[in-house]
Each structure stands twice: as structure tokens, then as C-alpha cells.
Amino acid sequence: EKDGYSSFMLKEINEQPSAVEQTLMGRLDPQGNLMLDELRIDESILRAVDKIVVVACGTAAYAGQVAKYAIEHWCRIPTEVELAHEFRYRDPIVNEKTLVVAFSQSGETMDTLMAVRHAREQGAKVVAICNTNGSTIPRESDAVIYTHAGPEIAVASTKAFLSQIAAAYLLGLYLAQLRGTKFADEVREVLHELQQVPAKIQTVLDAAGKVTDLARRMSDADSVLFLGRHVGYPVALEGALKLKEIAYIHAEGFAAGELKHGPIALVEEGQPVFVIVPSPRGRDSLHAKVVSNIQEVRARGAITIVIAEEGDEAVTPYANEVIRVPRTPVLLAPLLTTVPLQLFACELADSKGYDVDQPRNLAKSVTVE
Ligand code: M6R
């Protein structure tokens, strides 16, 4: 069943082009408008939404963090992301104008389910983004957008993460189209770019050899840091979580801008630091800021492993290793930049002889609070 791969996780990482493609498929009408028929919530209610709250746990919550950047930009609706177990027990402000979006691969995560129930009790509409047909969270939600990643067997989530992000983009683009925001014009362009993403994920996978070599060389690391800004920040958090979960290595993800507010004190000679670099074609000099963060850690002896866009030569003077990803709009980049981090964790855990698919202490689906 592993199709020749050494683990389900590696197989699922390699299935990501089709997982994303399937999730995006069949959403355009002949005029090129986005259809989201599953979103069976009255359009008048969707137009009146004044706040979106994403609830989720673990990797699904990081997908939610990526979604926040995209949805706020395209829809201009304030969007919060909260761990479901924190949301549930702190008296959150939720009402009929709140749209709660619950991300869950399994659809059975009890913490997320309790948050869904709580939100609906307060009058909010709930949309589930879920990978498992007929599971509990979709059944208890007002609507569901299914991700079509196929069954995910490995405990560590990979293809579900990318598919959740893709589904969240669809939701954001649909709401922008429906509400006619000034960014609605971007919708077609982004949809076009999204269609190109599966092939670009394949390009990243085709270059996996470099990541595999790196993982094998770094198998003795006892701590790895991950830095990113903007949508690269949740990608950094996800890269760190993967390494903790399956390779049992201490790993932390930081917003690169936080470095000088504390974490840079951790950096000493030989400290491996992954940096997720935004496109140099993006706005707000984000790219230059991240390049200077690479310089800062490198000057303190860090070994820098940089994930950067093809053709971005500004990073090379400060990078011990550069892993390239194809060009894509800034907001879509997590669908590409996450992949080398998944591969790194998977190969490193494998080289240590660990059971990649069944890491210690973890269950695929956490059905208790
Ligand atoms: O099934 P869910 O998406 O609701 O699961 C949420 C988390 O338990 C899950 O993402 C967990 O963090 C994974 N082990 C991540 O690899």
C-alpha cells in the first residue's frame, strides 16, 4: 500500500500535487467565476459576516493561520485564528454575524468539535474544512468544504495541511467575489495561479534529493530553529512541529521579526536555522527584512538553510544551503515552501530509524478533550 515508499508519510508528501489539484477541481463556471456550492449558508448571511474565527488544533491550526492572511487580504473581514481548546473555554465574542471555520483532517478532534458546538450555541454559522466524509465535525456544522486529499494514514499531517490551505483559499476567494471587495479583481488572477500550483509542488518534490542529503547530514542536530514572516511564519511553525513529532528533535518556529526580541539569544555557533524567504516580488520590503534576519543569525554562527524562490540571488551570500521553490504569488507560497520542511523531518526521522508513521505518544485522531 505504500507504493514503494518507505513510509506512508513519504507517500503522502508525494501525493500532494494531486491532493491540492483534487481539492481545487471543478470550481469554475463557464464564465470563470468561482463556485462553492457546498457553502450552503444563505448569501445574505455570508454578506453580513463581520468576523471570521478559525478554530483548529495542531497542524490544522497552522493552516488556519495561513488562511487568515489570505482571507483578510481578499475579503477585508477581520479574521482570528484560535486553538479550539482555548476558544472553547474563554467566553469568546461570537454571534450571528460571526463565521466560524473549523479545520480538521479527521473531523473527529474532540477539542475542535467542542468549539464548533460552542460557536453554534452562540448563534454563529460554522463551516467545516474537513478531509473525512461523514465525520462528526462536518455533520455538526452548517456547511462543509471537503478537502480531497484522500485518506491520510501517517500520524503526521502533510497532504491534509496543503489541502486545507487550498480549501481555505477557495473560501476566501469566494467570499471576496460574493461581497465584491476591491480585491475581487484579484480573484480570477489568483484562481489562475492556483491552478499552476500542483505542477509547482511536483517541481519541489522532484528536487527532493537535496533535502534528503541535508537531513541525513543533520541527523545529529539536537535543536533546529525555523524563521518566517507573513505566511512564512505559520510555515515555520509547521516545519518545527513536524520535526518534534516524528524526529523527536527540539524545534521552534518564530516570526522572524521576533528574533531581536528574544530568540536570537539562542543562536550560537553551529545552530541550524531554516529561513522561509518571501518572494522578492512581494510588497512592503518583506523580502529585504527576511534577508537581513538571515544575515543576523549567520553573523552569530548559525548554519542557515534558506527556502527561497527560483532566481532570488539576494539570499545566496548568507545561506549555507538554498532550497529553491518555483515562483508563485506571496499568499500562495505556503503550498510550496512547506514541502521541503515535511521532507526534511521525514527523511531525518527515517535516517534515525524511527517509525515515521507511528511516532511515540501520538494518535492520528485525538478524540478526547
Ligand atoms: O484531524 P485534525 O486535523 O483535527 O487534527 C488536528 C491535530 O491533532 C493534527 O493536525 C496534529 O497536530 C498532527 N499530528 C499534525 O501532524
UniProtKB/TrEMBL annotation:
- This one is known as Glutamine--fructose-6-phosphate aminotransferase [isomerizing]
Q: Which domain of life is it from?
A: Bacteria
Say where the protein is mainly found. Answer: cytoplasm
> What UniProt keywords are attached to this protein's entry?
Aminotransferase, Cytoplasm, Glutamine amidotransferase, Repeat, Transferase
An annotated GO BP: protein N-linked glycosylation
Q: How does it assemble?
A: Homodimer.
GO CC terms for this protein? Answer: cytosol
| Enzyme Commission number(s) from the entry | 2.6.1.16
Keyword Zinc on this protein? no
- Compartment(s) of residence: Cytoplasm
- MF annotations from Gene Ontology: carbohydrate derivative binding; glutamine-fructose-6-phosphate transaminase (isomerizing) activity
- Tell me the ranges covered by the SIS domain, including all copies: 41-181, 214-359
Q: Which organism is it from?
A: Tersicoccus phoenicis
Q: Which residues form the active site?
A: K364
Q: Which reaction does it catalyse?
A: D-fructose 6-phosphate + L-glutamine = D-glucosamine 6-phosphate + L-glutamate
Describe its function.
Catalyzes the first step in hexosamine metabolism, converting fructose-6P into glucosamine-6P using glutamine as a nitrogen source.
